[in-house]
UniProtKB/TrEMBL annotation:
Origin organism lineage: Bacteria, Bacillati, Actinomycetota, Actinomycetes, Mycobacteriales
UniProt feature, compositional bias: Low complexity: 132-147
Domain CopC: 27-120
Gene3D superfamilies in the record: 2.60.40.1220
Protein name: Copper resistance protein
GO cellular component: cell envelope; periplasmic space; plasma membrane
Alphabetical keyword list: Copper, Membrane, Metal-binding, Signal, Transmembrane, Transmembrane helix
Any Pfam family matching the protein: CopC
GO molecular function terms listed in the Swiss-Prot or TrEMBL record: copper ion binding
Highest taxon of source: Bacteria
Length: 190
């Protein structure tokens, strides 16, 4: 086999390996949350829900909601359904700023952790202790017009760019190896 053929075969194998590894380079990340990061809400939420771009593992999911004074308002382990993690918030949450902290493991085994805050502007309407008549509760929390934003990435975009650049270099090398002019055969020495 000629050297050019061997180089071309090696380049094809490496390019195929890189193409197949592309999805493995794409780690999971937080896509959306309710309440939204930096959200200002007027109605106390009943739960916090995080949505990721890949399924996450139940046994490794942790989600906390903590007030500025350190009080935990989501005392139970979150429930996980596919790419969603939910944690119920205790009733009677007072107005204030809250920090949501999460750490989950995606289906690819990559840990994802982050924090964000939201602000509750008023405490929930609770019936007085003597009152037997329940008061109507709003059905869903409302947020202000602030756009929802995802936390900073974990560098997976940089990995994708590097993988694409390396793949492009390999393809260019393969094309050059196949198109280079043949060298003349060596003349035997006299």
């Amino acid at each position: 086999m000629r050297v050019r053929s061997i180089v071309a075969i090696v380049l094809i194998i490496v390019a195929a390996a890189l193409t197949g590894a592309g999805p493995a380079l794409a780690h999971s990340e937080l896509v959306s949350s309710d309440p939204a990061p930096d959200g200002i809400i007027a109605v106390a939420p009943q739960r916090v829900e995080l949505v990721f771009n890949q399924n996450i593992e139940q046994q490794f999911a942790n989600l906390t909601v903590t007030a500025e004074d350190g009080t935990s308002w989501a005392p139970t382990k979150p429930t996980v359904e596919g790419a969603k993690a939910r944690a119920d918030i205790r009733p009677a949450i007072p107005a204030g700023r809250y920090t949501v902290a999460y750490r989950v493991v995606s289906a690819d085994g990559h840990p994802i952790a982050g924090t964000y805050s939201f602000t509750l502007t008023q405490a929930p309407d609770l019936p007085p202790p003597d009152s037997a008549a329940p008061q109507a509760q709003p059905a869903a929390p409302s947020a202000t017009a602030r756009p929802e934003s995802a936390p900073a990435g974990d560098g997976s975009a940089v990995r994708w760019i590097l993988a694409c650049a390396l793949g492009g270099l390999l393809i260019a090398g393969m094309v050059l190896a196949l198109r280079s002019p043949r060298k003349t055969q060596r003349q035997p020495r006299e």
